[in-house]
Amino acid sequence: MYAQTQRIKIFGLLLLLVIVVIIIRLLQLQVIQGKKYTAMAKGNRLHLLLEQPARGVIFDRHGHILVSNRIRCDLAIAPRMSGSRKAMAEAAAMLNIPLEEVTRKLSADRASPLDPVVVKEGLTVEETAMVLERKHRLHGVVIKRVPYRFYVYGDLASHLLGYVGEIDREKLEERRHLGYRMGDVIGKTGVESFFDPTLHGFYMGGQADYGSVGAHGRVLTAMEAIRGSSLLLSLDRDTQVAAEDALAGRPGAVVAVDVRNGEILAMASSPDYDPNAFVDGLSHTEWNSLSSNPGHPLQNRASNSAWPPGSTFKMITLAAALQERVVAPGERFYCDGSYNLPGRRFRCWDHSGHGSIGLMEGMAQSCDVVFYELGRRLGEERLRRYAEAFGLGEKSGLSLAGDTPGNIPSAAWKKKRFKQEWYAGDTLNMSIGQGFVQASPLQMAISTAAVAGGKLYKPLLVKAVISPGGVIMQEYGPVMRRRLPVRNDVLAMVRRGMRAAIKDPKGTGHLAAIEGVEVAGKTGTAEDPPRRPHAWFVGYAPYADPRVAVCVFLEQGGHGGAAAAPIARRVLEKALITTGIPPSL
Fold it and tell me: What residues contact 575, with CB distance under 8 A and at least 6 apart?
C-alpha cells in the first residue's frame, strides 16, 4: 500500500512538471515571442505589391518635353489567391488568350512566387472595361497600370537621348543595392543610360492579404511609386530639328555649341532610329535588321566616332605657327600646285596652284602648300602639342558613354603602332588634318568654339536635375578646361582667316554665308581613297561677338564647301535665334 502511494505521488509530480513546462512554453510563445510569431503568421498571408516607378521626364532648354511616359494596362494573375486560376481561365477565354500561354508564363521565373504574373500586355480600352465589369468574380485577376517610355518626336536626337530596355543580370547585381529589381526597365544608351540612376525612380506599393486557404485576396494598403527625377538639357529642340532636316538622312553628323559656355544646342547623327521601337523589346529579326543595316543607324557619328578632319585642322596649324613665330603675319608663299620633299611630291587640292599667296588668303582658299610649309617649320612635336591644347586627342568630357578621344599621332605612337619611324611626310599630312589624325565632330565643334572665344570648355549637356515635385535639385554650370595657350593677336588672325573663307570671292566656305550676320568658318575635304572624300565644315557666328559654333561632317560627302557649308548655314540660322540674335532673312 505504501509503495502504491509513493508511485501515485511520483506520477503526480511528473504530471505537474509536464503542466508547468507546457505553461512556460505557452508563455514564451504567446507573451515573450508573441509579436515575432504574429508577424510571421501575417507574413504568410500578407505580400508586398510593388508599383513600378515612372522614369523622369527629359526636357530641352526651353521646357519642351522630349521624353516622357505613357501608361498601359496589363492583365495579371496573383497565383496565391484562392480561385485565381479558375478566374484566369475565364479571363483568358474572354480575351482570347491561349491557356497554354498562360500556363507557360505562370511557370516562368520571377522575383517572388507571390508576385502577380502578367499574362497580357497592353489591354485595349474595351478589354480593360470587360475585365473591370467582371471584377467581382475574377478573384486574383488584376489590371496593372504600367508606365512605359515615350519619345515624343520619335527619332529626333535618338543617339543623344538613347533608348531603354529590360535590365540584364549583370546590371541587376551592380544596382540591386539601389533598389533595382528583376524586370526593371533601364537606359541602355545615351542620356537614358548615363543618367539612369537619376531618371529611374523608387518602388512603392501596398500590402495584399492572401488570407487563409479558401479565402480571397484583397489589397490592404497602397502607396504610389515615386517617379524619377527629370533632366533639363541644354539641347534646343528647333536647332536639333534643323540639323536633322539638313542632314536629310545622309551619313554624317552636326554639332552646335554655345561659344560662351560649351552648352550643346544640337547634336545630330544620321542615319538615326526610333527609340520607341525598343520600349517593348525588338524581335531577333528586327534587331538583326537594325544592327546589320549598311548605314549603321545605331552608330553615333557625332561623339563616338572619329575621322580625319581635313582642312578644318588648318586653324590649329595656323595658330601654332603664329604663336611659335615660325611665320611672320605678312609672309607670302608660292603655290604651283604641289610641294616637294626629297623623293616625294605633295599635291595641293588645286592642282593648277594658287600662285603668290599670303596667310589670310591661304586660309580663305585652303591652300595646302601654305600649310605644308607651316607644318614643316613647326615639326611633329609642336604640332601635336597645339592640337592637344585645342582639345584633340583626348575625350571631350561629354556626359555620355563612348566619347572618343580621336587620335593625334606622334613619333612614339607610330613606332608602337606600326613599328615604323616618323617621316617628314607624316608631319605634312598632319598639318592639313590627314594621315593619322582623327577627330570627332563634337571635338571639332568644341575646338572651333575655343578659337572663337579663346577658352576650351567641357561640353555641357545637362543643365539641371528637377525633382518629381518640380524643385531644382542640382544645377550644372560651365566647366572651362583651359584657356588656349596662344596670344590674342594670334587668335585674331586665325579668326580673320576664317572670316575670309566666307567673305572673299574665292573663299571655300561662301555657301555658309548668312544675310545680315557675319559668319567665320573653315571647310575641309578629307581624302579617303578609294571612296569619296569626307566633307567637313566648322564655323561660328557672329564674327565680332561669337555666340554659336558649329561642325558639320558628311561621311563620303564630297567637298566641304559644296556639301557641308550649306548645312552649317541652316543650323546657324536657327541656333542664332535661340541665342538671341535672329538673322536678317
Answer: 236, 239, 242, 256, 265, 266, 547, 548, 550
